[in-house]
Amino acid sequence: MAGLMQGKVALVSGSTRGIGRSIAEHLAAEGAKVAVTGRTVEKGEKVVARIREAGGEAEFLALDVTDEQSVREVIERTVERFGVLTTLVNNAAPTDVVAGTIKSVAETSTEEWNRILVGTLTGNVFWASKYAWPHLAASEGASIVNISSGQAIAGFKGFGAYGAAKGAIDALTRTLAVEGGPDGIRANSVLVGRVVALRGDAGHHTGGGRLTRIGNPMDIAYAVAYLASDHAAFVTGSRLTSDGGFSINGDAVTSAEAAAG
Question: What is the pTM of this model?
């Protein structure tokens, strides 16, 4: 299983389906040992089984990113299981909450706002990075890859809390990169555009023009693997945009399409 991630140990949050699942499976295919995490044991075990069947090494660990103790324990258990932690991919987000809370800022309750920010920013990135930090600092070639969104750079009606969380992720990524320099920890983010991840399909993309197809979860997995690998050893504090040019094509931007990102 030699590849870009040979010798790495990666924890991928929210990796039981969709983009997270594709990231976990691809990092494993590239040689990483992977901690698959999420709220649903059955789905997580299926991802682990797929990785093992392909010759990779993985373990499922139940994770609730809205629970600080859960985040801390999963990181510790990952290190206990694999010996080290070199790679942290912060992908989780409460998509079910976001989908059920499409309303203006004026209509959004404080509880709804907090639920989205905790699940997307506080637990998924802040707590995870905080508790993973000493383990990353002790390893070689350590990196954090945060999953951002087109919502971070454009405003869309009904997605105030989610957009704020994703924008904050990009800002926090830059801070992590600056603070991580002395400890040898790189931090980057991937801006995700329109991606169809229904059923958690993890196949390769099917080609097509840059601006004429919807993204596939593997488009994001490839970007993450690059940033997490030693090929990106001199890359930190960056935001890699993987959206087929969507964010630079003014004619393509609509609220309905953007919601998929």
Answer: 0.90
In whole numbers, what is the pLDDT of the chain averaged over residues? 90
Indicate if 222 belongs to the active site: no
213 contacts 231 by C-beta, under 8 angstroms: no
Domain ranges, ordered by start, for the chain: 9-258
Query: What CATH architecture applies to the domain 9-258?
Result: 3-Layer(aba) Sandwich (3.40)
Whole-angstrom CA distances from 70 to 13, 33, 158, 174 are 12, 21, 30, 25
Distance CA 91, CA 108 (A): 24
Residue type, 118: V
Convert the pLDDT of each residue in 48-89 to its tens digit. Answer: 999 999 999 999 999 999 999 999 999 999 999 999 999 999
- Angle at 98 (CA atoms; ends 174, 59), nearest 5 degrees: 70
The catalytically annotated residue of 131, 162, 222, 226 is 162
- Residue 192: in which H helix or E strand, if any? strand 185-192
**Would you give the DSSP letter of residue 159?**
B
Q: Provide the strand spans (E) within 80-129.
A: 87-90
